[in-house]
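COMPLEX REQUEST
Ligand: phosphoric acid mono(formamide)ester
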Amino acid sequence: MTLRHFLTGTELSCDELGALLHHAAELKAAPLSSRALEGRSVALIFERPSTRTRLSFEAGVFELGGHPLVLRQGEMQLSRGESAGDTARVLSRHVAAIGMRTGPDAVLEELALASEVPVFNMLTAGHHPCQALADLMTLREAFGRLEGLKLAYVGDGNNVARSLALLGALAGVEVAVASPDGYTLTGAPDAQLTTDPGEAVRGAHAVYADVWVSMGDEGTADARRAALAPYRLDDTLLDRAGPGAIALHCLPAHPGEEISAEVLYGPRQRIWDQAENRRHAQKALLALLVSG
Ligand code: CP
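STATUS: Structure written out below.
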């Protein structure tokens, strides 16, 4: 079998994505039912801060019987100029899979090209496919299906929006993205794009928000907050979505900015389930990646 990576999420077929989400639900019901990583280690390279991704992968690898090796920026020779390719060549001799959170997608691609074990994306500037797996799992839990659902994303057309649109299309979820001019999503041909949040949420089963100032965007924070202010996910916007619509957010959240505190902590959110589902969905991903 060819070496399998998970860089954008579109490496999966529709059927594989469906099976992965089904397995994730089984693992949620029985967290210790798979020993897919028994006696094996997984490298988790973090060149950017993380709470959820680090916790969910570290705990998830352990639950699969494996050993997580968390490698932070500054602790590796990567920080002193060793290439991503040479790093992958060495790590491949020790671990069953390599995850990386970094900035440029090209760094992750260089790592994957040289790796002899599966490489997975723990967030790059372009993509956050592990987040999208948990998002789809949460939608499936809430509605019992994915095919035919509509998800509206309001805000910056960033890596989270792109991965939702790409994996949503694979799962049969209609994804509408509302962003102001200058923040429009690119690279997701199936997404419905608009500048009008009301139009995006019409008939939606879920409304999704993300931070207005992502990692690396701090230099333009004031301009972003001004442009994105009309895209806040609050009860008024959620009321304009379909009946029974839920609120999603990948976290960390800034209550009062991109989401109101009433929605973030209110009865219509599935945000904290979504954060938990990172672990279950990623365990199913790891089991798939190391099975080849
Ligand atoms: N949603 C997410 O990726 O969270 P962290 O940045 O805390 O990992």
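REMARKS: Strands lie at 41-46, 67-72, 97-101, 119-121, 150-154, 174-178, 192-194, 206-209, 246-249. Residues 130-275 form a domain with the Rossmann fold fold (CATH 3.40.50.1370).
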